[in-house]
């Protein structure tokens, strides 16, 4: 298992990690298979979405904040219930297809680390399943 460290700077943000994951796949000699990436935090997660227009990230964070506002009739004492809910809606893990050593993503797609309770020091766990070059 490999560990990627991520430092977030805001309470809510989406950090592109596609390049780091591709660099990891290259350094591991990944050829054909699956790179499984997991976020071991209950208030942060992973997603794949458009990586061409930064307004998409802005819109996604705004929509999630509208759907699940920071303050609400929550009972969790730490004051971050919204972050737990947002993380559950988006999801903690991705399975990324790798072919010929390259992450297989659509033309406009990128992988994002989603922070909902920052700023914090975070980690991603990655595990290669497949053949090596």
TrEMBL record:
Belongs to the UPF0047 family. Pfam families: YjbQ. InterPro entries: UPF0047_YjbQ-like (IPR001602), YjbQ-like_sf (IPR035917). This is YjbQ family protein. It comes from the Bacteria.
């Amino acid at each position: 298992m490999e560990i990627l460290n991520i430092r977030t700077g805001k309470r809510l943000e989406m950090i592109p990690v596609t390049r780091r994951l591709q660099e990891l796949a290259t350094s591991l000699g990944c050829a054909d298979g699956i790179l499984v990436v997991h976020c071991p935090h209950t208030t942060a997660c992973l997603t794949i979405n458009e990586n061409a227009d930064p307004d998409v990230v802005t819109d996604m964070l705004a929509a999630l904040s509208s759907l699940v506002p920071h303050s609400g009739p929550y009972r969790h004492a730490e004051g971050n219930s919204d972050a737990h809910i947002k993380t559950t809606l988006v999801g903690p893990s991705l399975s990324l297809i790798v072919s010929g050593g390259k992450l297989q993503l659509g033309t406009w797609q990128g992988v994002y680390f989603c922070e909902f309770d920052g700023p914090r020091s975070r980690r991603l766990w990655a595990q290669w399943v497949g053949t090596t070059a």
